[in-house]
Amino acid sequence: MLPKLIKDILCETPQSQEVTVSGWVRTKRDMKNLVFVEVNDGSCFASLQCTFDRGSGLDAQTEPALASLGTGASVTVKGRLISSPASGQAVEVSAYSLRILGDAPAENSLEISAYPLQKKRHSMEFLREIAHLRPRTNTFGAVARLRSRIAFAIHRYFQERGFHYLHTPVITSGDAEGAGAMFQVTTLDPAITAKEFASSGSIDYTKDFFAKKTFLTVSGQLEAETYATAVSRVYTFGPTFRAENSNTTRHLAEFWMVEPETAFAELEDNMALAEDFLKYIFNATLDECAGELAFFDAHIEKGIIENLRQVADAKFAHITYTDAIGELEKAAASNKSLFEFLPRWGCDLQSEHEKYLTEKVAGGPVIVTGYPKEIKAFYMKLTDDNRTVRAMDVLVPRLGEIIGGSQREDNLEKLISRMRELGMKSEDYSWYLDLRRYGSVPHSGFGLGFERLIQYITGMANIRDVIPFPRAVGQAGF
Ligand code: 4AD
Ligand code: MG
Questions:
Q1: Nearest-CA neighbor of 379 among 390, 368, 369?
Q2: 136-182+218-465: CATH homologous superfamily?
Q3: Would 6-102 and 136-182+218-465 be classified into the same CATH topology?
Q4: Minimum-distance ligand to the CA of 218?
Q5: 286: phi > 0 → left, psi -120 to 50 → alpha, else beta; which?
Q6: CA of 440 to the centre of ligand 1 (A)
Q7: How would residue 132 be classed by pLDDT, with cut points 50, 70 and 90?
């Protein structure tokens, strides 16, 4: 039998029943005969107070254990659950037995430095240096629980709507986004390939593990399209990799992406799906993570709960890229120092532009459609104007882009000609082009950055603090 979790013990009616509590010590207060030990097991915010009375019935090993006990040690406590005389907690454990499973030293020694987490608040930067202990803090414990529940809600949303969870490969040979920001996967020895390159000017990848050049995937979309045009609705939810040199608070080199792909769906259907999906997740979080949200509202970003409620209720604004540029140009003309980058038709929206559009123009999330084809990926459906594509980005206040998606080009000739324009070899994508050769259908999909979603919901400022083990430029230590 697994031991009880503190979150469940806290819900029991105290009737002096025997309980066993396992967790890590948050604090110990020694007051003459009484010793108060707060034990936390990360199942919820609250710690369970265990009170030891030196004068009454402690077992023989408990007294020395109490004497050496420090913050961070792992313990198992046995006692009786009683109603607590102290304010701020309904129950506590009147304890008679304490066993230390693993010490956590309070002082530096030669072998091991003192337990780094103290009761005081630590900065996010400090905690990032001790990634293996971050989850012992309230903030990271809350992020971990919330991530897990939201992941489950995402699966529930799609599973209940006829979408099949598709496992797309991590190792691929194509560039799904055509952006070139990929990590290469190879078993060739770099010392040997460097020599080969120096003498012949090229590298023979037929000698590599997969007999061709391969990479970590930037997106599961192309594979998802293959299955959507066979089983109608699929979604992926897995790690994706980008070797962009973007050292920002919203970029990771390894992040999790949710990518639904739907056959017989056009851009408008895709937009409606994205909005319904996000609202479902916001409502699920409000319902199922109330304790965590209250914490983020109090300590990380004031007003986050009210904000989520409003967003879950209101219709998302829609604007075309062309109109968005118009709004930004107007704003830039009336205030010369508003933007670092001047908005101009044909240029990608910078995060300052996305911020302005959500916070000043729309006053909430906004879906931008109809981007110039030059700044979007090769697979997006060309509009009749021949200049824009049926793309959609969902932008949210504070963060900017949270979702990127599109209707896909389902016309074989148009897709091949676009790939040619971009210098892509259509032979490399012939399996993908087959979808347009045999029973092609209008289809659409989008990608949600899971960490950006968690950032938006929690108000956490840096994306590295909403993923357990962040991988970003210069960071892969743990
Ligand atoms: O806009 P992106 O690049 O779109 C795609 O990858 C498409 N294949 C999706 C699709 O249509 N199936 O990425 C989608 C989302 C972005 O909106 C953003 O939320 C997130 O993925 N994202 C990142 N998140 C963290 N770190 C990065 N470096 C990210 N790059 C994109
Ligand atoms: Mg994008």
A1: 390
A2: Bira Bifunctional Protein; Domain 2 (3.30.930.10)
A3: no
A4: 1
A5: alpha
A6: 25
A7: confident
**Which residue's structure tokens are 């897990």?**
148
**What residues does each domain of the chain span?**
6-102, 136-182+218-465
Of the listed ranges 34-38, 108-112, 344-348, the least confidently predicted one is: 108-112
pLDDT given at position 57: 87
Report which ligand 1 atom has the smallest distance to the Cα of 253.
28
End-to-end CA distance of the chain: 32
* Distance of CA 81 from the midpoint of ligand 2 (Å): 53
Burial 257-271 (b: 16+ CB within 10 A, else e): bbbbbbbebebeebb
Residues lining ligand 1, Cβ inside 6 A: 176-177, 219, 221, 242, 244, 251-252, 255, 257, 259, 401-406, 445-447, 449, 451-452
Looking at the CA of residue 463, tell me the nearest atom of ligand 1: 25
CATH number of 6-102: 2.40.50.140
pLDDT (average), residues 247-271? 97
Read off the pTM. Answer: 0.96
pLDDT of 210 over the 90 cut: yes
Whether 178 has a pLDDT exceeding 90, the answer reads no
